[in-house]
């Protein structure tokens, strides 16, 4: 009879009677729990295996499902029914909890009792021993059914060395949500299942994209079918615990095919138990003689039979095999009764090889082996898997931002479909992961940004809310240290210098003009200068023409050639007096010289005035800025300004406005209600300057922008520099390095540091603080600052402050010069054309050519010349040196004039040959020494 289950007929057990069942059969009663539903199938397969061995013993079985939640009377009625109808040679207990009333009953009838240990215990022990070498402290164990979940739960209740979470992977997909929402993320994962169930469980995990960081995962196969696993390539570098099928079959004394077809541990253990009981039965027929016991009959067994059963201990005669062993009392199931603590349990031993999935040779992938109850390391470099942290971050340029396609603006995704993050904080996270040896996942908040408290519920959102709820382990982003935030989270050492709020504006686009230098003086001044030049030129001409002491009218005083100031020459003198070259020879008359002196004084003063005003004009133009501080911005009304809506900057002005209102209300109450002791508070003016209320009003009227990108865009669009954006100073400095049109105005205010945030009481505080201090010592943060706030990578044109006066400002000077050059060239062309086209009229007194003498080549080749009337006229010799130098005045006695030098003959070795076409020695002019 196979798998017959007893009915629950009621029977009393106060009066007991026992009778013997004739024959050579084995009548077994199995105690199981309700969760062991697979026991029926394994028992049936084990009985078939016994039949195939032909051991000449028939086995009858009865299964009693012990209801732990019900009264013991119900379980006892079931047992009495089985004992009364079938009888029992032995009771084999597979249940997880000792049923004390039933155990007392079968002991009173001396029915042999065998207890079987939990089947999952050895696998959990092997798994725990291996993870000790990896310094594990928490683990998630995924099991294939409810029975394994119960056994693992009992193992943890007895004491498991790790913090463990059990999930039933065979109960649908509910465990996936729990696995996804698990916080904090565990260090290791273990899947305990047979080969077929392992494929089904891992397929669910892989589809849900929960399989990551393969070294953290361990696949513990509960049967030798590890080769049927279909996801070896996906699970590369994950650990595998595989049963050695050949060693199991060798221990069971079965063929290898037995361990490869339908094999499992429970079936193998049942097979070994049956064979051992058959050996006991066949060695002595009286030891396992089936016993019928009826609860309502009077006991009538003879004394000899009772004495045999009383002296029989099945464990003394139960043969153990290489596969089946007994648990020692120290590690067996502990009962409340001291007598029950010595009950041994049957268990099994298997050889398990531990390696990791890889395409390399098995000798390289072997990690350890479990043999004879001990773990033997095959690879001495078994190292813990990297820790894994969920790190919170939020978009804030240049701290953390998602990579986007420059053409479409779409967010770039990695192979897992997650955004790719970049920025200052992401580089720092990568360095922290290298220094602290961990892997990480960046988590952005689903609600909010950095963190705000709901005034009604008191709950936090954003980065702070994720830390409070445990969604993230720590946060590295542009998170400022606020006392309000420190009430719910902790901060470690700041990683960035003090930053705060600043103002950004567009550089004003100034109007350029090539004749800007002309605007230094007003039009009436330029016209006055031209009038002065004209009047001075006319006056010089008149004075030189009519003054009796001018060089023109007093030739006796000036016998040498002098400058004649015609009207044209007077204008040229007046014009050239404006140049550093000067006007040239001045008039000779005293009246003309007085006029010229006054005119020169006018020129000097006018040039100095123009030069000074031009320098000041150009300098002031370059230094001109609309506003230079927050106070100036608040006092004016031409320039509009705004902030990012609901940002830290916006909240700052809201808080400052509230502080101003509160202080004013307190001061007013104090001033109006001042007593005699506080009469000094009675002042007319409010002693605190109010400005934040006006600033907030102006911000609200300009409408706060949704994000920083809109704010910078609005500033860049205003070429007249009539719009300002108040924002985080670090982000403003970064934007300036990317846009040449922007400039920072004023000084930074409301300074606060950026720091890494952790959960309150987190064990990572000391480690993170130490690592950050090490990075500061190595100047790592300075390198990051130079990387992200580097203006040299932007080829901006030099400003006027840096490059000086631009060509646009003084280009008119060059144009005027080029105009003069062009006018001169045109005048030259006119002169040439006019001269060529003018009729040639010879004046009466012009010299006439009367003879042309042929040139003589032998005597005087060079002396051939034009003979004109000039030769016949008497040429007046030039005045002597004394006359030209002293003009009739007496020669001072201090000056000595030299004597006249007489010519001397040249003493040359040879004379010049006439054939050379040169004059002879006799014809040379006298040589004066």
TrEMBL record:
Keywords: Cell membrane, Disulfide bond, Glycoprotein, Ion channel, Ion transport, Ligand-gated ion channel, Membrane, Receptor, Transmembrane, Transmembrane helix, Transport. One of its GO terms (cellular component) is plasma membrane. CDD domains: PBP2_iGluR_putative. The chain crosses the membrane at residues 525-543, 597-620, 813-835. One of its GO terms (molecular function) is signaling receptor activity. Residues 398-469 form the Ionotropic glutamate receptor L-glutamate and glycine-binding domain. InterPro entries: Glu/Gly-bd, Iono_Glu_rcpt_met, Ionotropic_Glu_rcpt, Iontro_rcpt_C. It is found in: Cell membrane. It is a multi-pass membrane protein. Residues 388-791 form the Ionotropic glutamate receptor C-terminal domain. SMART domains: Lig_chan-Glu_bd, PBPe. L-glutamate binds at residues 485, 649, 728. This is Uncharacterized protein LOC119643723. It comes from Glossina fuscipes. The lineage of its organism: Eukaryota, Metazoa, Ecdysozoa, Arthropoda, Hexapoda.
């Amino acid at each position: 009879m196979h798998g017959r289950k007893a009915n629950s007929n009621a029977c009393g057990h106060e009066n007991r009677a026992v009778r013997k069942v004739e024959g050579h059969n084995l009548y077994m009663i199995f105690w199981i729990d309700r969760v062991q539903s697979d026991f029926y199938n394994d028992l049936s397969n084990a009985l078939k295996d016994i039949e195939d061995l032909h051991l000449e013993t028939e086995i009858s079985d009865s299964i009693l499902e012990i209801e732990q939640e019900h009264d013991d009377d119900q379980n006892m009625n079931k047992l009495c029914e089985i004992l009364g109808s079938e009888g029992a040679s032995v009771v084999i207990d597979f249940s997880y909890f000792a049923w004390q009333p039933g155990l007392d009953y079968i002991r009173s009838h001396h029915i042999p009792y065998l207890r079987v240990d939990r089947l999952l215990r050895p696998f959990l022990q092997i798994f725990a021993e291996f993870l000790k070498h990896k310094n594990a402290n928490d683990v998630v164990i995924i099991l294939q059914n409810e029975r394994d979940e119960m056994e693992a739960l009992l193992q943890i209740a007895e004491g498991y060395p790790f913090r463990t979470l059990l999930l039933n992977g065979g109960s649908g997909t509910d465990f996936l949500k729990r696995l996804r929402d698990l916080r904090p993320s565990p260090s290791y994962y273990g899947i305990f299942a047979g080969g077929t169930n392992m494929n089904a469980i891992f397929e669910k995990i892989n589809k849900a994209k929960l399989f990551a960081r393969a070294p953290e995962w361990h696949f513990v196969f509960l049967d030798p079918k590890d080769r049927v696993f279909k996801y070896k390539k996906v699970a590369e570098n994950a650990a595998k615990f595989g049963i050695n099928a050949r060693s199991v079959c060798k221990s069971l004394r079965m063929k290898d095919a037995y361990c490869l077809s339908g094999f499992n541990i429970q079936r193998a253990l049942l097979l070994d138990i049956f064979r051992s009981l058959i050996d006991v039965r066949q060695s002595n027929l009286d030891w396992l003689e089936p016993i019928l016991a009826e609860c309502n009959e009077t006991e009538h067994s003879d004394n000899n039979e009772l004495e045999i059963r009383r002296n029989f201990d099945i464990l003394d005669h139960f043969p153990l095999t290489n596969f089946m062993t007994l648990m020692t009392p120290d590690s067996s199931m502990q009962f409340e009764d001291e007598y029950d603590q010595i009950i041994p349990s049957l268990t099994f031993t298997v050889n398990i090889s531990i390696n990791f999935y890889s395409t390399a040779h098995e000798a390289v992938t072997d990690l350890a082996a479990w043999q004879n109850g001990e773990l033997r390391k095959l690879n001495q470099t078994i190292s813990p898997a990297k820790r894994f942290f969920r790190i919170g971050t939020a978009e804030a340029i240049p701290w953390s931002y998602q990579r986007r396609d420059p053409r479409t603006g779409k967010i770039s995704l990695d192979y897992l479909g997650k955004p790719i993050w970049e920025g200052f904080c992401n580089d720092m996270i990568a360095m922290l992961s290298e220094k602290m040896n961990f892997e990480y996942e960046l988590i952005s908040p689903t609600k909010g940004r950095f963190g705000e408290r709901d005034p009604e519920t008191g709950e936090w959102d954003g980065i702070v809310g994720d830390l409070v709820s445990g969604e993230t382990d720590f946060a590295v982003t542009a998170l400022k240290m606020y006392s309000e935030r420190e009430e719910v989270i902790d901060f470690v050492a700041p990683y960035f210098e003090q930053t705060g709020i600043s103002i950004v504006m567009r550089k004003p686009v100034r109007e350029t003009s090539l004749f800007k230098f002309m605007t230094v003086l007003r039009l009436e001044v330029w016209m006055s200068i031209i009038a002065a030049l004209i009047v001075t030129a006319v006056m010089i001409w008149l004075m030189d023409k009519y003054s009796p002491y001018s060089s023109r009218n007093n030739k006796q005083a000036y016998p040498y050639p002098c400058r004649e100031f015609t009207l044209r020459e007077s204008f040229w003198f007046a014009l050239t007096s404006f140049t550093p070259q000067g006007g040239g020879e001045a008039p000779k008359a005293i009246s003309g010289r007085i006029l010229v002196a006054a005119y020169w004084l006018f020129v000097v003063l006018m040039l100095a005035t123009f030069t000074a005003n031009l320098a000041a004009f150009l300098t002031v133009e370059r230094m001109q800025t609309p506003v230079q501080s927050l106070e100036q911005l608040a006092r004016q009304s031409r320039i509009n300004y705004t902030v990012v809506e609901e940002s830290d900057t916006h909240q700052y002005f809201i808080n400052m406005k509230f502080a101003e209102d509160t202080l004013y209300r307190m001061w007013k109450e104090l001033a109006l209600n001042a007593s005699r002791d506080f009469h000094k508070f009675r002042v007319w003016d409010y002693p605190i300057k109010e400005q934040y209320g006006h600033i907030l009003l102006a911000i609200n009227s300009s409408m706060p922008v949704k994000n920083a990108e809109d704010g910078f865009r609005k500033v860049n669009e205003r070429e007249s520099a009539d719009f300002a954006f108040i924002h985080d100073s670090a982000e403003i400095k970064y934007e300036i390095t990317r846009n040449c049109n922007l400039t920072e105005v004023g000084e930074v205010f409301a300074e606060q540091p950026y720091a890494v945030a952790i959960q309150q009481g987190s064990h990572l505080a000391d480690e993170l603080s130490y690592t950050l201090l090490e990075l500061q010592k190595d100047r790592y943060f300075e390198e990051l600052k130079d990387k992200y706030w580097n203006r040299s990578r932007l080829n901006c044109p030099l400003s006027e402050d840096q490059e000086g006066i631009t060509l646009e400002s003084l280009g008119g000077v060059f144009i005027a010069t080029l105009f003069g050059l062009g006018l001169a060239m045109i005048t030259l062309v006119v002169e040439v054309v006019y001269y060529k086209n003018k009729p040639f009229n010879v004046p009466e007194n012009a010299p006439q050519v009367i003879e042309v003498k042929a040139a003589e080549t032998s005597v005087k080749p060079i002396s051939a010349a034009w003979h004109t009337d000039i030769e016949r006229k008497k040429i007046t010799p030039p005045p002597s040196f004394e006359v030209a130098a002293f003009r009739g005045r007496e020669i001072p006695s201090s000056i000595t004039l030299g004597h006249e030098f007489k010519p001397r003959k040249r003493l040359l070795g040879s004379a010049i040959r006439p054939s050379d076409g040169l004059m002879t020695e006799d014809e040379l002019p006298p040589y004066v020494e």
